[in-house]
Each structure stands twice: as C-alpha cells, then as structure tokens.
Amino acid sequence: MSTTHSHTDPFRISGPFRAPVKQKAFSLLAGACLERLLRLNHCREIYSHIQADPGPEPFPERVLRHLGIDVALDEQQTRNVPRSGPALVVANHPFGAVEGLVLAALLQRLRPDVKFMANYLLQRIPQMADLIIAVDPFGREASARDNIRPLRQCLNWLKGGGLLVVFPAGEVSHLHLHRRQVTDPPWNPNLGRLVRKSGAMVVPVYFSGSNGAAFQLAGLVHPGLRTALLPRELLNKQRRRIFLRIGSPLAPESLAALPSDQELIGYLRARTYALAAGQGSVANRFVLPGKKRPQPLLPAPIEPVVIGLLGQEIADLPAAQLLLESGPYQCWQTSLQQSPNLLREIGRLREITFRASGEGTGQPIDLDAFDHHYTHILLWHRDLEQIVGAYRVGRCDEILKNQGPEGLYLRTLFRFDRELLEKTGPALELGRSFVRCEYQKSYSPLLLLWKGIGRFVARHPHYRTLLGPVSISRTYSDLSRRLIAGCLSQQLAHPELTQRVRPQRPLNLHRAPRIKGCSPAEVNALMGNLDGLDQLIADIEPDRKGLPVLLRHYLNLGGKLLGFNLDPDFSDVIDGLLLVDLLHTEERLLERYLGKEAAAAYLHHHCPPESLAC
C-alpha cells in the first residue's frame, strides 16, 4: 500500500497502479474496504466537519474540540516553556497523533514560532503543513539521505530563536517483548547533535498512557500494521482526557557537558520518563526495602510548656551563652541540666515538626538519652517568648572521653570506630534540627541557627569537622529517594572514610532504580549529574519540592557522604551521613556563618602563616 500527497482528500488511499483503469478499480474495491477497516472514512467525516465550522481557534484546538479530547496539566508547568529564544521540546510518543495535537494547541498559546519535526505524511493536511518540518521516519534506504535537508532546517529554526518539538523515538511506543513493557523504541541519535549545535534550552514532556492491545498485537505481526492502525487509535481517544507533565528547562551548557551523544540522549530520555513518577503511577515506583506498615494512630504531643517558665530559663542563662542576636531573635546555647523546661518544649516541637514532614518518633515527645549530654543551640523569639527552632550538638571528643562511642547518637544509625573520628579530627555531631512549621516560609530562622553554630565553632576553634545525619522523608516518592541516595553515593562519597562506616540498616544501592521506559544505563545517566539533581527531584515530586533544605545546605558547605541508613524507628526515613571539613569550605561561607573576623581567626588557628601544611 502506498500513499500519495493529496490536498483534496488527505485520507484517501492511493493504489499502487499507474494505469488509470487499474487505479480506478483499486479505489472502488480494495481502497474503499481498507478505508472502512482503518476508519479513514470516519477521519474524513470529522475533517469535513472541522472545515465546515472553522471557528476562531487554531486547527489543532478545533480537532481536539471536535473529538471531545481534553487535557490534564498543571498550569504552573507551562512556565517551564521559554517564551522566547531557541527551545527544543522533547516528548515520548505513546499514541501517534493526539500528543502532537495537544502540544501544538498548547504551545501555540504560549508563543507563535512553533514547528514540529514530524512525519511527511502529515503534510497531506494543509492546515498542518506550516507547522511541520517534514522527515521520513520509516527507515528506508533513502531515508537518511532525504532527511539531511530537514535536519538542517530544524537546526536553522532553532538558531533563529524558534521553538521545535521533536518526538525522538520516530515511531509510536509499542510492546517490547524482551522488556515486557510498552515504551518508545530507542531515541534517534541525531537529537544529541541537534542539542549540541543549536544551543537551545531543552524541555522534556511526558504523556501518560499507551495505545490499546490490538495495536500492540498488530505490531508483533508487522510494524507496518501499527502504522496502518494509527487513525483508529486517534478515534479511540475521543471523549478522553490526556495527561501530561512538563519538566524544567535544561540548560544547553549542562547538556553539552555530557561526554557523548548517546549519554545525552539517555539522560534526556530518563528525564522525560522520570516525570511519570509525579503522576503516582504504581508501575513506576521503586519500593525500598522493608515492609510498608499501615500508619498507626499516633498519640497526641504533650501540652506546651507555660511561656513564663520558658522565659525565666532564658533569663537565667549566662550572658556568655548568647551566641548572636538579630532583631527579635536570639540564639542561645544551653543544656538539659540548665534548662529542663526549654528542653521539654524543644522535644514537643521536634515531634510536631517532624510529623508534619512525614518523620517523627511517633511518641508524645521527642527526647532521648542523648539529650542529657549534648549541647543544644536554640533560636528564641524574644517578643513572642517562644522557641523558633533548635539544633542538637555533640562534642565528639568529650563524648568519647566520658561516655565512649556508644554515647554518640550516630552509633544508633551507623557502625564505626574511634579511628574514624581520629581521622576526621575534632568533630561536632549535628542533628535533631527543626524550625517550627509557622516559621518555615522564611529562610532566615535556619540561617540564624547556622550562624549560631558558626559562632559556637568560632568559640571552640579546634573543631574542624561537622558530622550529621540528613533525613530524606517518606513524603518523597520512592523514586526520588532512590535517585538522591544513588546520585550522592556515586558523586559525593568520601574517597577514604566511606569504607569505615557501615549503616545499621543498609540500602541496596548496587542496582539503579527502575524507571519504566528506561534502561539501567539511562537511569545511571541521571545519577551521574549532581548539578541537575535538585531540578530533577522537583520535576518528579507533585508538590515541586527539590532536595531537602538541610541536604542542600550541607552540599553547599562542601559536604561528603559517608553512607545511607534506613531508620524504621523514625518513620522509615533515609538518613545520609554527611561530613563537612570546614577547612575545605569556601571562605565566603565561613565568613557568612562565623563572621568575617572570626572566620579569619579560625583559619589562622588551623593554618598559621608559618605552617608549611597550609
């Protein structure tokens, strides 16, 4: 069967004969039967109605309206599409036609300079011709030669500042028996060259769903049968809702850093298919070790401590324990022995705050035996007389001297010996940090707490290392948790000390997380890009949250990873043990938290001018 270009009837099947008589006979007999079988006659009827009722909308919108197809999309995600300048939209290809109509209708509302790299057969529809840079996707002997010119047109369109939509698979998603899933075939390697040469922002788009069983079975017989059934599949989408997600734009500089076109394509494909996780598809979730238990009914937190008792304990603290003051905020250091009521309120607020983020002990108060011999740094609102947030700080050298290794909270999560701490030098263990919920809209409380820690370090300059567990809660999808753990393990593992730390409940990070539609190598490409991790997690999570705030903070300080542990006693959070060597932290950050003069004195303490080691 062949098709010829026809503006008069884009859905007519032309016969393979040159002789007029034979051609006529084919049209009357076989052609008519095939059109009914493939439902081309129905497509023709709908097309005629659209032509008779042009309406004010662009043609793609009119087609969707006549088919009764609507689109489910978070409107905020349309902000990910650049409104000007070169942009390349890459999408999976699950249906064949409807996703192109949806993108055309959507993108033409956002900017006027939209083109599609698409099958040359679509030019048979005159209303679509101006949208299309036509290519031959059928892989014939002459296809590579015939596609050279349109590829140049695509590159010129992008270099001229336009937006180009590409379905890199070339073919519609179909059943792959060896993978036991319906997904795109391998993406075209020409996409990598197009990205590198154009310098365009790249926007991944993911469409949920697939064509029906008849389409998939026909493809097992012959790929041409799939193509023949595409009109039927378009009509099958009538009165349906199409779900899509638009990912964050990817900068050309970061993509150009990928070493090969194959890795670039794999990365883009994985970024696209990872968007499926944000739609809650069970098939795309990676279940972490451990049984998922039904959430028990938790006991209520204890009653708040009387404000007057808290204010009195603050007033009784020695002035030397005031670390800093900023407006109505004061940052104090204290202990359980000095301030039992303040610590009781800290324990209450910890549990409330942790529960709100999917963590917590599940007890009425979050206090344990370690609180007795740890220092506590708290942020106090002087005018409201309330605790805003707090940190628990352990002086590892003193705890080892007085309580031994079991006196460290970190030993409940990780196994290590004294030799580890001897290699890190004098260290402070940081943990159990919180900022109460009503203050989390502002970054300043956390900043003031870290400045308080900085002032504490400045007063005890022999401490050069910070150690702390950073939690990844169950509010993150399993895929996000797995990607974060895998990426940090690959990119930020401490080259020496990682071997000295063993988690109490280890995660199996030897295998890449599974993303439906992607190979392990393509998923590994995601985990090899630390710079794009925060953006990737924000794309996956429905509420757009990126990396945990505290984790980002440790990474900014130059933190290195020592290991991951699954904590069933704290709502199954994943704890990453991070180490920060303050002598390797950027000087501007030391000045930010310690103060300029204190930072200079701290560096002088560790690296005096006469020291050859510095």
UniProtKB/TrEMBL annotation:
Keywords: Acyltransferase, Lipid biosynthesis, Lipid metabolism, Transferase. SMART domains: PlsC (SM00563). It comes from the Bacteria. One of its GO terms (molecular function) is acyltransferase activity. Residues 87-210 form the Phospholipid/glycerol acyltransferase domain. Pathway: Lipid metabolism. Signal peptide: none annotated. InterPro entries: ACT14924-like_Acyltransf_dom, Acyl_CoA_acyltransferase, Ornithine_N-alpha-AT, Plipid/glycerol_acylTrfase. Pfam families: Acetyltransf_5 (PF13444), Acyltransf_2 (PF19576). This is Lysophospholipid acyltransferase family protein. It comes from Geoalkalibacter halelectricus. The lineage of its organism: Bacteria, Pseudomonadati, Thermodesulfobacteriota, Desulfuromonadia, Desulfuromonadales.
